Structures are given as C-alpha cells and as structure tokens.
Amino acid sequence: MIDTDAIRVDRELWAAPDGIGGMLSGDGSQSRPYRVPGGSLDALLPVLGTSCRIRMLTGEFNVRHFSPPQKTVLLHGAGVSATKINLPPNCTDGPFYPHIRMITDGGRYFTNFACTDMTIDGNWDAQPVHPNLKIQALSIEACVAHLRNVEVVNCGANGTLSGDAGLEAMPISVQTFANGDRQHYFPSMAFLWGAEPTTRLEVIDCRVRLSHFVKGGTETGIFIRTNSPANRQPAGTRTTEAALVRGCSVISPGGICYGGADLDMVTYEDNTGEGMCAFNADSLTANRTTIQNNRFFNCATGINVSPEHGGSGIRIDGNIVQLGGKFWNSVLRRFEPQWGIQLQRATGTGSRNVILVPDVLGLTPLSGIEGDNRVIVMGATDSGALAEAQARLAEATHQVGVLTAKNSDLQTKLSDELLASYEATARIVRLDKAVAGVREAVREV
User: Fold this and answer.
1) Sign of the dihedral through C-alpha 135, 141, 142, 145
2) Distance of alpha carbon 388 from alpha carbon 381, whole angstroms
3) DSSP calls for 49-95
C-alpha cells in the first residue's frame, strides 16, 4: 500500500473555502489556513511551491480545470460529507471543452498524486446542453497514484454527435506507463526498457454514482491502464502488482462499472457494482489481471474480458454476478448481449464464481472459462428470495451509511472546532502584540 504521508513535499498547506473578495488571505499554516476566495482551488496555484500537499478543511471548493504544474500533488479532504469540490455552473472555458476534466495532470504526468476523503461533483444539470459533452472528475496519469474514500457524482456523457461509436466518460481514470514517466520511453532511455517497473496505482474505497447518459453516452466508472507494448516495456517484465482497485462501489445504469485497457498485473477485488456491464476489458491487451471476490448485481453483462490484441494470465475467482433484465442500446437500436462471464482472445482460469440468471432463453452464463463455477437459474421463488436478500443487503448498506455519516459529522465538528481554535489562537496573538505595544508606549512615557 502507498503511504502518502511518507511522500516528501516542498510545501504543505491548509485551505478553507471562505475567502472574501478576490484576495487570498492567511498564510497556509495550520493555525492560519489560506482563505480561498470563492472556494476556487485555482487561487492556490501561485503558492504551491515545487511540490505540494493541500489539506482542505470543511466546506465547498470548486475547480474549472485544476491542472497544477507540480510533479507531486497530494489532495486531502476532511471527509466525504465534509469536503466537496464542485464544477461551477456554465463551465465552458476549459482547454478540452466540451470534454471537461475537473482535476488532471494536463498531459504533464505526475510523479506522485493522491486524492483522499472528499466528494467531487460534476454538476451535470448546471452545464449547458452540448451534443458532445463529457464530464470526468479525475483524469490522472502518474507514476504513483493513490485514491481513497472519494465519492464522485454527477458526471456523464452526451453521445448525440458520436453516432454508433457513442461517447464514453470515465469519472475516475488513472493511468501509468509501465516503468515511469513517459520521457523514459525515448530511445536515449532504452536501458530502462525491460527494467523492473516501479509504478503503482491504487483506488480504494471510492464510489461513483448519479452519472448521466444522453443519446447513447456511456461511462466506465473506474478505469485503469498500466502497460502497453507501445510503451516499449515488454509484457511480463513486472513482478510486482501495478494497480489495485479494492472496496469500491459503482452504480452505473447506462454504463460499465469497472474496466481498463493495456492491463498488466492489476487486481480488482472486494468491489460492488450495478450497471449495464459490471466489468469490461476489451481494448488493446490484458495480462496477469485478477478479478476476485466482487459482487455485481442487476447487470445485462457481468464480466467481459476480451482484449482485441489478446492476453494471458487472467484469473476470475469467487465473484457473484446477478444478471438482470435486457439493456436496450438506443444508439445501435438493439439489446446488448447478456453474459455472466466471458473470456475471449485471452487465456486464464475461473473458479468459485456464482452466476444468477433469470429464467429466460438466450442467455450465455459462462463462456471461455472452466472450473468449479455455479450457474443458478432464478425462477419466481428464487427471484423472491434474491429480492429479500438484496433488501437485507440494502438495509445493511444503509446502516453502514448511517454510521459513516455520523463519523463524517464528527469529523466536520472536529474540523470546525480546530478552525475555531486556530482563530482563537490568532486573536490571542493579536492581543499579545497589542499589550506589548501598550507596554512599550508606557515605557517611553
């Protein structure tokens, strides 16, 4: 696991989203946090130093296209329900518009990036209608990236101009080159091609929900890319895990919950998803990728691994996939094919998977894998039992949410109390200075 606290930075600063007027106040210290005018993180760009850690206090910030030039950028909130970053209404001035990337490396490639304990809101309904609009919360390329306890809402895609191809948003997209910065792939760095990669991506306990899909627009909620032969790193070189997606939740009625391209040494485990497709890896290559112990509900397609350029070493173990009703593709004007688990153009194994299918014709529960897997056809009685089990799961999830909210409220109160103590300390310092001034004046008299 990546220890973000161990990453050294040139500047660590605290920020609160309550600046007055157009001026940045405070000095960024814990006792006098920066008061950010209008809550805009862009106001902090001139004071970030060569590398930075930004600790955001309780409140609402906003970004239009936050792309800091620093190679190391670490963003920490005060909790999912305490710190929120919004896309402002009518945001049409970004460099990639109508494709909006709220927080991004901007093509410069971070050495280290982190984003923890906050909500990021794409504010879809407040944007002008555009036939090619796409909103992504985190679009990151980095050597090392760590995302934890981040909730992304209200992103999406309008596919009106895209025709049969559709338009795909990726609310959380994290990509890396196999053995470092892209500059390492120039011929002058050929001695690194084939060296043990040192890159690492982590997406842990993150959530994507409330996405928007217009005219065939779709999404991959959490998207990972770790390696490509085009990156001049031979497949199979790495011996350490390149990326981990664990404990996440994606609800995507019109899209794909999890997926990736050019996967190598990636693990997706202990995640939940509900959507048109639970997991999809059909682009470029997929090697030595593990999909295990996930729970996918009400999907037209469960797990699809069919990389166009092939792959090997795929492990699909211990997943539960419940197939729901058919999904009508309004762009292609057809129902999407229904699979439980499909493995094509790649080799691998699958065991201990359970596929729950409705009692209708035309389904293919398993294709391309063999092993100790179970297919359970759900009749009326079984469906009722499943609905009851899902209701119990929903109630348990709700209780977890209640506890999480209480914890977040406590974090918010603590943050507010800390801020109040900082202000009280500042007042005491000012009073001390005033008393010292009076004493000096008395001494002179």
Assistant:
1) positive
2) 11
3) -SSEEEEE-SEEEE-SSB----SEEEEE-S-TTTEEEEPPTT---ST
8 A C-beta contact, residue 333 and residue 294: no
Contact 65, 101 (CB under 8 A): yes
> What is residue 192's predicted lDDT score, i.e. its pLDDT?
76
Share of the chain above pLDDT 90, in %: 53
* Assigned architecture for domain 4-386: 3 Solenoid (2.160)
In whole angstroms, what is the distance from residue 218 CA to residue 220 CA? 7
CA 239, CA 241: separation in Å to the nearest integer?
A: 7
Q: What is the dihedral of CA 361, 365, 370, 372, to 10 degrees?
A: -110
Question: Which tokens hold the place of 53?
Answer: 């850690």
Q: What residue spans define the domains of the chain?
A: 4-386, 387-445
Burial (CB count <10 Å: 0-12, 13-18, 19+), residue 1: exposed
pTM summary value? 0.83
Cα Rg of the chain, angstroms: 24
Kindly state the tokens that stand for 50: 């060569």
Query: Residue 151: which of 70, 251, 58, 238 has the closest Cα?
Result: 251
Window from 138-152, 283-297, 333-347, 406-420 with minimum mean pLDDT:
406-420
| Contact between residue 291 and residue 303 where contact means Cβ atoms under 8 Å apart | yes
Helix (H, G, I), strand (E, B) or coil at 399: helix
Tokens 């239009």 identify what position?
64
Q: What is the pLDDT of residues 355-404, one digit of tens each?
A: 998 876 566 788 888 788 988 887 644 555 555 555 555 566 666 666 66
Contact 241, 264 (CB under 8 A): no
pLDDT tens digits along 416-430: 665 565 455 556 555
Would the pLDDT of 5 be above 70? Answer: yes
Asked if pLDDT for residue 445 goes beyond 90, the answer is no
What is the band of 107 on the pLDDT scale with cuts at 50, 70, 90? confident
Question: In Å, how far are 322, 337, 354 from 295, measured between CA atoms?
Answer: 8, 20, 10
Contact 340, 364 (CB under 8 A): yes
Alpha-carbon separation of residue 163 from 124, 214, 329, 331, 428 (angstroms)? 21, 12, 12, 7, 64
Which residue's structure tokens are 């090697």? 287
H or E segment to which residue 201 belongs? strand 200-204
